Amino acid sequence: MMLDNYIKIVLKSGKDQPVKRFHPWIFSGAIKKMYGSVSEGDLVTVYSNKDEFLGIGHYQIGSIAIRIVSFKEVVPNYGFWKNKIESAWNLRKNLGYTKNIKTNVFRLVHAEGDGMPGLIIDFYNGTAVMQMHSIGMYLIREELVKALQEVVGDKLKAIYNKSAKTLPFKSDVKSEDGYLYGEKSETEVLEYGLKFKVDWELGQKTGFFIDQRENRLLVQKYSENRDVLNMFCYTGGFSFYALKGGANSVHSVDSSGKAIDLTRENVELNFPEDTRHEAIVADGFEYLKDIEDKYDLIILDPPAFAKHRNTLPQALKGYKRINTRAFEQIRKGGILFTFSCSQVVSKERFREAVFSAAAISGRNVRILHQLNQPTDHPVNIYHPEGEYLKGLVLYVE
Ligand code: SAH
Questions:
Q1: What is the pLDDT of residue 310?
Q2: How many whole angstroms separate alpha carbon 71 and alpha carbon 83?
């Protein structure tokens, strides 16, 4: 059959168990033998030691050697990819994202969560920003572009490829950022009616942290008459919801001057001349050393402290440190929103770090909410690592 055209890879005995449970990653150490020479990005077929077919996936040099795209004996042709894009779009459509006039920014493809390991597509009011994390996905970009055009139709104005920094830097394949379809258009998006200028060409990630949408809305609910610190603010997301919710004052802090400029620009768009807001360029660890009892609502949304397993202990220390400082200084009756977006930090480990920070501070702390990522970032039930965003809302007596 057609699958014979692909290089066959056989796994070591016992290493087939996770794949049989539909986990899409195969680590390099699980491979017993490769029948031929493969290039990065090639599709390969995977078999157990007993010669059972397990799946077909993209090969890459690295700790994750194969990302399975199908557990069935199918040839991943154009129709195959179009079906996947269609399924992702239909989910967002069913959830009400595609026709929402108050929120026109959402994640359209969430990698493993949508059965497309290595691919992120964020939709910004007509512009789809594609970020490929695997060579295999990068190599089929033209098919993905065509599928997006067919599935999304008139709503799609442009497609921007932003993979220069996310593809493995050691590989031979180099990607230049740029438009694969259309051209730069509207960069203003709406989230719950608030306006945001998004810079997908130069900004972090795909330009905006879409995943905090619902958690920002929750901040709005708790902000009335509070003095708010939005630490690690990036484009200011949480701050505008706090202003909308009736905060007394809002301080947005980030170490990036560019982020602070964007925050200021966004404040002007939504709350021109509002004197309640102040944006500050500062290092978070330093700033938190000395906040005394200035704030009674603090948001800590740091960057992923751990990008790899081996930096996990360091990351946990980082979470513990910033949370201890917040617990020690937040006003009596204060509310702390604290997050981790590191995929390698599990929900349990993050909790432990926050709990020990609370214990060190000696404050009486209660959990009000346990937060996660919104529905446009679905989690593949067989790939628990996809549940990367974790948050706690805590009441500090
Ligand atoms: N809360 C934001 C997303 C935060 S992303 C939102 O809702 O959109 C993490 C941010 O932390 C980035 O903007 C990055 O510039 C900033 N950052 C990284 N290291 C920092 C440090 N040591 N001190 C302050 N900010 C830092």
A1: 85
A2: 15
